[in-house]
Amino acid sequence: MQNKAIGAEFKNLSQDGMKKYNDLAKKEKERYKKEMSNYVPPSSDSDNDDESDDEKPQKGGKAKKDPNAPKKNMSAYMFFSNVKRKELKKSRPDLKFGDIARAISVEYKKLSPDELKEFEDMAKADKRRYAKDMEGYTPPPKSEKSEKTPTKKAKKDPNAPKKPMTSFMYYSTENRSRVKKENPDASFGEIAKIIGLKFRELDGEELKKYTSKASADKERYRKAMEKYEGAPKSPKASDSSNTSKKKKKAKVEVPPESESESDDSSAASDSGSGSDDSDSDSDSD
């Protein structure tokens, strides 16, 4: 659900907003090219044919995380959050998880430039530590079993009705920009977590606003689908459905009869047609 809301927000970005992330992506791509030019993949030893349990991929084709991989660097906000969370748990043990996250966010925004610099320096030092650790780190070779074979996704009909949004998606779309302003140093994932916490703490009246929107959108989708399924499909959609039917038929196609079976069937048909002859022969005898 959160991924759908994030996707909807991304589509609604302005050109300036999109440029910011495109620039970040380009920088990341350049960084990756530079690192890959100096990277030498480890050679796979023939002695290590038998995989250990740790190296086996998990269900769903996702490879297990390498326990020897360097710990990722933390942001200034994460360093502050770790320190402040311990203080709040001791001083105010009655606070819920969401209240603690909200209090940390408020306290972080109140930091003076000198106080903020302390945590920013910690983040910079941790970033250097991570870069240094990654230089000496050699990732384990990927096994053939862990590589997922891509499955062909069915083409979506452009005329199909837009799927309904949930109450959480409505809430996320409406409040994401405000949460980003309140937490400027929070990462993409951290913002999603904060929105989720805030949504769970809505009271009955506030929640009703979004559940009503979701119910109305669900009804809109139901009516649209009735109209869509009753309408004649576009040529492309009908062609794709025909080809899929042909494929299904091909799977259940009856195998050709063997020579012995065809001989038996022809003999059976001959016996039916020649029953009078056999009776006449027996009478003559």
Sequence-ordered SSE layout with sheet pairings:
Layout: H1 2-11, H2 15-37, H3 76-91, H4 97-109, H5 113-135, H6 167-182, H7 188-200, H8 204-230, H9 235-251, H10 259-273, H11 275-284
Describe it:
Among the domains are: 61 residues, DNA Binding (I), subunit A; 63 residues, DNA Binding (I), subunit A (Orthogonal Bundle), CATH 1.10.30. With 285 residues, the chain is mostly helical. The C terminus is likely disordered. The protein is 64% helix and 0% strand. The radius of gyration is 33 Å and the shape is globular.
Quick take:
With 285 residues, the chain is mainly α. The chain has eleven helices and no strands.
CATH topology descriptor of the domain at 167-229: DNA Binding (I), subunit A
Query: Could you tell me the radius of gyration in angstroms?
Result: 33 Å
What structural class do the secondary elements suggest?
mainly alpha
Task: Give the strand tally.
Answer: 0
Which stretches of 5+ consecutive residues score pLDDT under 50? 43-55, 248-255, 257-285
Give me the strand/helix succession: HHHHHHHHHHH
Which key terms come to mind for this protein?
285 residues; mainly alpha; DNA Binding (I), subunit A; 11 helices; 0% strand
